[in-house]
């Protein structure tokens, strides 16, 4: 039976092993072992995706050569395997005759036999075409399986980036050096590089935040850039945005370039010290209060949109994600429909009396840079930013700060810095909303993997492995809210 889904997942695992792990292996024995592992995985993948079609062609050719009936059009894999065995038994009977007449009809039959078998194996592993030399080439890297659906997007390397910079600034003396891709980003690609100026001798450490060829959940840096410019102008701690390249075709995705900020997102450098941990969480509380007290218009929001209440903004946001889900899903997902329907019908009434503010939408230690003293140097990754109620950010950040300093202490620092008390009536709503939003993201990841980027391991995991976890989790949380336990 053909199983393209499983085959794609295996191919993605193989691509990750070969492209990201193999280059790091210096030991020849380890390279050979990895080569063997990928060969085994490719064989399984081919059996799931290409074996049935290849076997149908092979059996048809063999049957014609030995004068057997062609395979039925509706023959399944098991039937084709049996017919192949019957045809090969007939071939074994004919071999002595063919070998004795190899200069005539026997040679023609042998040539058809060899060509048919060769094509069958190449359909499952293209490297078969390179012959037995491959067996002795430990950790092959010259001939790789390429999935055409994932090919064709330009890559961003030092040479290409240097050419782009020289064209953009009209200066031949600038060079991009030290390109380094930073792991951990899910929906964007992060690349460090240094802009070298041969005339001035200056070196400027910069960072690129780039969309993927098809942006996940349709969030693009083009939308983030204006907000970052306004925030930086206000003195808010974000990486200074320098310019936006909105031509997605140039390097396979639009990108923005910022100055690199000092610090680390590793909280282990300060979280074990009670004093520094308290200082870091108090700093974060003040930072959020500052964000939530800005007038959205001062940060570039349309005045007419900014005038809508937090409740009206939430209705708009839920509608956008419902539309995204219905457009992006590749199949029916009933467990995703349930929380979306509930959220749309249960935006807390109190939110319609609260003014809208800019919310980050993903405030956690993974998106914060701290210096060695636990002071925030930058709040990163604004793709989920929107207009809404600050309670959303507070509900999300609670899981990070509560184990370190306690929620009451954090909230007291936030209110003392000018933040409004959270809307308790909306706490459950925002908890479910975050889970549901992430689940819809998994639905889109599945579609992106299946249709556009079949070698993106992160989308394979999110779309095909993690999505069911998300579906079940959000529905169980909703049910626990709707069905209260009966008192004993």
Summarize the structure.
The protein is of the alpha+beta class and 488 residues long. 53% of the residues lie in helices and 10% in strands.
Q: Could you give the topology of this structure?
A:
Elements: H1 4-21, H2 28-49, H3 51-65, H4 77-100, H5 105-122, H6 158-169, E1 174-182, E2 188-197, E3 203-211, H7 221-233, E4 241-245, H8 248-251, E5 255-259, H9 274-293, H10 303-306, H11 310-328, H12 334-345, E6 357-359, E7 368-370, E8 376-379, E9 386-388, H13 391-405, H14 407-416, H15 427-451, H16 457-482
Helix pairs in contact: 1-2, 3-4, 3-5, 4-5, 9-13, 9-14, 11-15, 12-15, 12-16, 13-14, 13-15, 15-16
What does this structure look like?
Helix content is 53%, strand content 10%. Mean pLDDT is 88; it is low at 138-151. The longest helix is centred in the C-terminal third of the chain and has 26 residues, at 457-482. The chain folds into three domains: 4-150, no CATH class; 158-259, Phosphorylase Kinase, domain 1; 267-482, Aminoglycoside phosphotransferase (APH), C-terminal lobe (Aminoglycoside 3'-phosphotransferase, Chain: A, domain 2, Alpha-Beta Complex), CATH 3.90.1200. Helix 1 (4-21) runs antiparallel to helix 2 and helix 12 runs antiparallel to helix 15. The chain has 488 residues and is an alpha+beta fold. The protein starts with a helix and ends in a 6-residue tail after the last helix. The chain contains 16 helices and nine strands. The radius of gyration is 29 Å and the shape is elongated. It has helices at residues 4-21, 28-49, 51-65, 77-100, 105-122, 158-169, 221-233, 248-251, 274-293, 303-306, 310-328, 334-345, 391-405, 407-416, 427-451, 457-482, and strands spanning 174-182, 188-197, 203-211, 241-245, 255-259, 357-359, 368-370, 376-379, 386-388. The chain has a five-stranded antiparallel beta sheet with strand order 1-2-3-5-4, sandwiched between helices.
